[in-house]
Amino acid sequence: NSRGTASLLKDSISFTEVSAAGLFEGHDLLRRGFTSVKNELVPSHPLELTEKNFQLNQDKTNFATLRNIQGIHAPLKLQMEFRAVKQVQRLPFLHSSNMAMDILRGNDESIGFEDILNDPSQSEIMGEPHMMMEHKLGLL
């Protein structure tokens, strides 16, 4: 019965997931924090998804406006500049303000919540440089 076999395979873990993460590899609390199934299933507040995607939605709106006003070349040029700025980064253990990205988005002259009360993921605590570089290069 092919349906019975398909339903059994749907509930099982695929071979690529096991081999990529390792069968006996544990959860890395230092990098990923504590796990909670509830947090992965539903957002804690209805506006959480909107707030997470705010910058993406704002960029899409700006690109659509640019396309309507100046033509297709303006959003394409701006997207190309965004990609170029994202590729240039500091070493992973050094804090980066992403000033070039703020200038492209026009956020360089505004003061927001994150400028005064920065979120904890952007803390000034420097990690161990060798371990962070090895993780970025995929050696760990």
UniProtKB/TrEMBL annotation:
Keywords: Chaperone. GO terms for cellular component: cytoplasm; nucleus. One of its GO terms (biological process) is proteasome assembly. Belongs to the POMP/UMP1 family. This is POMP protein.
